Amino acid sequence: EKAQIGVTGLAVMGRNLARNFARHGHTVAVHNRSYGRTKELVEEFGHEGTFLPAESAEEFVASLERPRRVVIMVKAGKPTDAVIDEFAPLLEPGDMIIDAGNAHFADTRRREAALKERGLHFVGTGVSGGEEGALHGPSIMPGGSPESYAALGPLLEDIAAKVDGEPCCVHVGPDGAGHFVKMVHNGIEYADMQLIAEAYDLLRRAGGHSPAEIAEVFRGWNAGRLGSYLIEITAEVLSQTDAETGKPFVDVVVDQAEQKGTGRWTVQAALDLGVPVSGIAEAVFARALSGDPAVRQAAAGLPGPSATAGAGGADLQADVEQALFASKIVAYAQGFQQIQAASTEYGWDIDPGDMAKIWRDGCIIRAKFLDYIRKAYDKQPGLASLLVDDYFLDAVAGAQDAWRRVVATAAQQGIPAPGFASALAYYDGLRAERLPAALIQGQRDFFGAHTYHRVDKPGAFHTLWAGDRNEVPA
Ligand code: 6PG
Fold first, then answer.
1. 12 labelled binding-site residue
2. Is the CB of 186 inside a 6 Å radius of any atom of ligand 1?
3. pLDDT digits (tens, 9 = 90+) for 63-109
4. How far away, in angstroms, is 189 Cα from ligand 1 center?
5. Does any ligand 1 atom lie closer than 6 A to the CB of residue 352?
6. How far apart are the first and last CA of the chain?
C-alpha cells in the first residue's frame, strides 16, 4: 500500500496535519529528522487511521504514490531549505513539495523557481488555525501552479475547515501567492489583537473594571457583531486566575509582546508596494515598543497628563504649536533610536551626537533644535531615548496638555492627524507602567502555545488552555 500524502517534520503542527489527513481516510507517510517522534505519533494515534512510518527520507519517498505529495512542516528559513535540499534529489518530475510553514513569500518564489527547473512543483501554502486548527480543520492558502493544485487541492479541501459545507481552502494563485496571503492574514491578526488589547486597556484603566469584569464584557461582545475567535479567547484569557498567586492571569504575564516576523514582513511588503497599512504597522510597533524594556525603564518617570488637562478655553494656535513641538521631539527620538539600533546591529559605532551636529545647518531638517539633541548626547552618549533628556522631558511635559487637546480636537472634528496622534500614543506607551501586551502574550499562548514569561520568576511558561488550564514550564 502506498500513501496519498506524506508529512515530514512532526512537531505539533506537522503531527496534527498528519493526523487530520489520516482521520479523513488518507494513508499518510510520516517522517521526522529523529525517528522517535515518528514512532510516538504512530504509537499514540495509529488507531486514528493509516500511517506509514519511515525512518529515512528514501523510505519515506518510496512509500508515496505518484505524483508524490510531500508536506514539509519545519521552521521557516534555513531549516526549510535544508529539508528541500534533502528531498528534491529523491523526487521525480511531477512530484510536489508543499511548504506549510510560515515562509516569507520571497523565499517561496525563489524555491518555486529553483524546483521548477528540476520539473518539481513547489507549493507554498499558508495554514492558519494553530494546533487545534491543524487537527480539526485549518484555513488553507495554497499557492503554486494550477497543475499542482489539481493533484493536491482535493486532499487539502478534505482536511480544511468547512463553512456551510464549503472548504476553507482555495488555490490562491501561482508561486508565492499563498504565503503572501498568509502573511497579510497574520498582519491583520496583529492589528486585531492590538485593537482588542487597547480596548481592554481602556476598560481597565479609564473604566476601572477588573479583568474578570472585562472578560464578561468581551463575552457579551462575542455574541454580537464583534463575534470572533480572538474576542472569544480574549474572554477566556481575561477570566483565567493564576493558580500560584490568585491574581488575574493577565497580571502575572510579562507585558512584552513577542513576534516571529510575519507582521513585520507585512509592513515591509506594504512599504515596498506603497500601501498604507497603518493599523498593522501600529500593531507591529506597539509590540516592538513593549518588547524594549531598557527604553521603557528609562522612560518610566516621564510625566503624564495634569489633572486639568481637559480644561477648555484653550488657544488653538498656541496648542497646535505645542503639539507640533512635542510630536517633533518624538519623531526625532524615534529616528535617533533607529540610528543607534542600526549602529549596534552592524557595528558602525555611529555617534548620534555627531549626526545632530552635522544636521544643524546645510541639510533640509536643519534647525536650532538639533543643537539640543547634540547637547543631550554630549551629556549622555548612551541616552536610551531623547525623551528622557532633561531639556526634551521638560519640553514635552510643558506641551502635553495642549498636545492631548489637539489630538482630541482632531478626532472630534474628523481631521486626520496621524502624526500627532501616533506620536502621543508612542509617548504614553513608553511611559506606561504596564502595557496590554501581556494580554497579547496570553492570546498567543492560547492559540499557538507560543508561551509567556512571568513577572515573578524566570523561565517560559505555557497554560494548557485546551486542557485543565494548569500552567506548565515550556
Ligand atoms: C495562525 C497563526 C500562526 C502563528 C502566528 C504567531 O494563523 O495560525 O498566525 O501562524 O501562531 O504566526 O505569530 P507571532 O509569533 O508573530 O505572534
1. yes
2. yes
3. 999 999 999 999 999 999 999 999 999 999 999 999 999 999 999 99
4. 8
5. no
6. 39
